[in-house]
Fold these 3 entries.
Entry 1:
Amino acid sequence: MTIKKLLLTVFLNVAALYLFSQNAVYDVNLSGNAYVTSYPDGAAITQNGLQKWVNEKSVIETFVYFYKPGAVTLSIKGKSDNESVIEVGFGEKTSKISIPAGNFKIPMGTFQLQNVGYASIKLQGK
């Protein structure tokens, strides 16, 4: 399915599982943390999030700094004007997820971080 003028306000929800089973949950706003890295005319990052995503070839990368290695659970939440299918990638793993019209929160999975530092989460239309 192609992206049809998708208004997508997205926050990446990052839950890091640390020692002693303590959970830390962070919402990562796309504004200031994400960039349209391919086909920049097909999407825009604004203070309101990802908007005017009209080209399925546009790649949106969100950069998150992780302070320690360990298990990280990612989900994507936001609001969309239309239903769509996107591909999400983190590390070596990618998967397709269906985005419903309206508000949503969709789990992306749990991943093992081996290193401290920035990691990129990629979104692309399919």
Entry 2:
Amino acid sequence: ESDLRCAAESPFWLDELWIDLLSERRHRLLTPEAAAFLFAREKASLDADQTEFNERADAAVKLATFAADNGLADEAAKELAHAYACLLGYGWRKDIYVFEVLEALELMLAAGDADARDWLVEIAGPVEQILGYTDGRETRHAPPEYHRLLLDYRPDKVAGCFEALVEDGDWDWSERLLRDYAKRTLSETPAGEALLSTFVTAAERRTLFKAASPARPHAAAAAKAVLVRSGTTRDAERRAAREEARRDSSSPGRKRKLPDFRRYPPGELDAFLAALRRRFLVGEGLTAWLDYWNDAGQGDAALADLDRATSGPDLYFFASDALDRAAEIALDRHGRSRAFDWLVRAQIVRNGWGEWFSSGGETRKRLDFVATHFRRRWEEFLRKTAKPVFGTPREGSITVGYAKLVYFLLQVGETDRAKACTRAMIDIFLEEVAAQPIRKPEWA
């Protein structure tokens, strides 16, 4: 042990390298005391720094192997459990789960839940430090989203959060927070005016000039001060903003023409779909076809043809909003029972509970329809739409949303259930990052 301690004082010594070599070759070269010393050093280093979950799991497995080979059975078991925790925390695309948590929290905050305000502060550390334990490619927008919620629902924490961002050198996030602050009436104070008067970048000035109005005199005064200091005019700023918008905008492509609906009456939907596929217009074309023949007095026949054509998985995602439109038509023509069946099919086919398969606006519109016309059947809707697509194998045996489920529960008046789901989501999020040394921000 004394020899190892002496060697470890060298600037060329690397604990991790020795753990790697000894865990790979599986030779016991150290005394029990020396092994315990080396294990403790590497364990302390691992516990002190955040690392990406896959790298952390790899390091924990090597440390567990080294401990087991050197008679440190308890330590080996703990590190193996640490590796398991990292695997569960990492998973497949698990890092973007943070956006589900933030969306669910925002829904509860908007509903006026008092506990949600404390929950928002509770997750400050894991969200703000998310780039420390993920690769950041899909999570770098989580902190700005979190700061936006702070501005709207915990303004008492914003100043401390902004100060911490500046001290840590997180310039991008601090500047975004400052621009978002300028957009809100929260900045309508003498102190806010003084702060907004320091805006110098083009993005900051554009934000300030949009906020300045007779209804916001402090923002208007700050904008005037910025114009005087910069030696420019409001017209020049407007021209610059228009020019940037022109450069950023992409020219819209030429709109493709739909086939003539009159050539494809009900009963000829398969041929119409073939024509749509050739033009890559299945989504919008199918809905337009349904509306055309419903307006022509053949709504029942059109619904029957659509029912036949979408009874299998072939149209899976491309049915688009035609199934939702079918529910509206069925409600008008046949009443609630037929409309409910179309809504169930639309939610399944469009993978409505999934966060990344269909837009939130589309799903919310459908869930609002259910809440308006079928509130008493909300549990039945949930059970039926949790099934895989048409009974075919899909990842997992059921599909139930996270934030979208919270939204649905709120819409049908199940506030307590929505709150319980949100709390469960937060607990899962915190448990999955528990293997990381995440510090609680001082401002929180």
Entry 3:
Amino acid sequence: MQTGKRREGKRKMIRSIQMLIDDHARMRSMLVCFEGQLERFENAEKPDYEILGGSIAYCQEYLDRWHHPHEEMILDLLKRRAPAKARIFVELDDQHRGLARVSEELVTLFDAVEQDAEFPRERLVELGRTLLDDYRHHLEWEETNFFSAAMEHLLPEDWREIAGRFAASTVPPTPSLIDQRYQTLHDAISEAKAVPDATHRQRSGREQIQRH
């Protein structure tokens, strides 16, 4: 009986972590799309505003409201199981708050762009670059440190609880489901999945799971 529960817990661990790793692969593809349009904007060329604005809104509406809270749920359980280890990951909350602040300011600036308001182009580009750098560092940091610690220290019953809480939450809004404006971004992300960096990271995440 206990063996069956352990196996079930491991399966739920794999599914929960894989869900987050798959999210990271989509996020990297989204960042590639966003970066390409930001460069066009910076060079005074006409960007695809549906991709540029959709990427910013995606960070706020999906990542800040669904993806990050699920990671923080795992952190709460890690604090209970390995408090000494979890103290190292206080930075996770700080990173999430910092990313949310940048996303919020970018949304405000982009709303001004859509309304033809005057604003410093350099500020939007600066914030866009900050978002790119911060998110790429954040994804790497989580995959290198946080996910492996969770897989090492959390128990099967923790993963059953996590799976139940994941399932009880609202179905995560993918770019194509949140709003029709995300369709262009959804298509661009599908194309960007062929980018080597995103493919490599997704494969690395799966190898990390297999080691456990």
